[in-house]
Amino acid sequence: MLKFYYHPLSPLARRVWLVLLEKKLSFEPIVVNLSQGEQLKPQFLKLSPFHHIPVIVDDGFRVIESLAIIDYLEQKYPDISLLPKDPQILAKVKMAQMVTNSELGSQIIPLIMEDANSAKRSPARRQLKRICQFLTELLADHLYFGEQQFTLGDVVTGNGLILANRLGFFLDSFPQLENYCQRLMLREPWQQVQPSKEQLENWQEFLKNLISNRPR
Ligand SMILES: N[C@@H](CCC(=O)N[C@@H](CS)C(=O)NCC(=O)O)C(=O)O
Question: How many CB atoms lie within 10 A of CB 85?
């Protein structure tokens, strides 16, 4: 059976978790306890040389990197398809995914590290507003970034927006995105993977310590 190495509070592992659930695949979940440094143990480093989760092992084939994993799952298990065929719609899905990965991803750290009212959050807020403006235009009046179809773009972007919102970047100035996140949260897999408020706060504390104590 497909093995899924993850931690329930890791947002990048959550991308893969959501795809496994949305595609209704059977898998063996294996928690890697990051707070106890399990990702640094030699056994795990053989699987994941950069000591990161998520990792999957499918029929003995190992894949690291959340985006590579979800693309692999889409190709290998196409029954519930999470990518559109139309080139323009596919380009929109990929733009949402990549803008989230490269632009939004880097703004999550300041939201974790700085208190909600700190001025140090201002540059991140400005950049997040630019990103949300772009995503609003891309979504337009469609249900999803793949227009009528729920796709990998929603897994990556929805997951990122919901996290930013829960970390205090509220979406009230972007009502289309706010409605979009609420629509995603009606889906059963999304309810299943969301951490509680307390779990999220603990994870935030854990990451603050990890990042502050990282060797430079
Ligand atoms: N680019 C990787 C990054 C994965 C990543 O940063 N994972 C974090 C958890 S969200 C992790 O495993 N951190 C543990 C560590 O760095 O020791 C991906 O998208 O899969």
Answer: 8
Which residue has its alpha carbon closest to ligand 1 atom 16? Answer: 52
For residue 202, is it within any domain? no
Q: Is 199 inside a domain boundary?
A: no
d(CA 200, CA 174): 23
Residue 192 included in any domain: no
Residues framing ligand 1 (Cβ under 6 A): 10-12, 34, 39, 51-54, 65-66
Mean pLDDT per 10-residue interval, the chain, length 216 residues: 96 98 98 93 97 97 98 98 98 98 92 84 92 98 98 98 94 97 98 96 88 74
Tokens of 79: 């029954």
Cis peptide before 54 (omega within 30 of 0): yes
* Residue ranges making up the domain that contains 38: 3-81
Q: Which residues contact 25 (CB under 8 A, 6 or more apart)?
A: 2, 73, 77
Task: Name the residue with the closest Cα to ligand 1, atom 5.
Answer: 52
Mutation choice for ligand 1 from 4, 6, 12, 18, CB with most ligand atoms inside 8 A: 12
In the chain, the number of structural domains is: 2
pTM over 0.85: yes
Q: What's the token pair of residue 119?
A: 């001025």
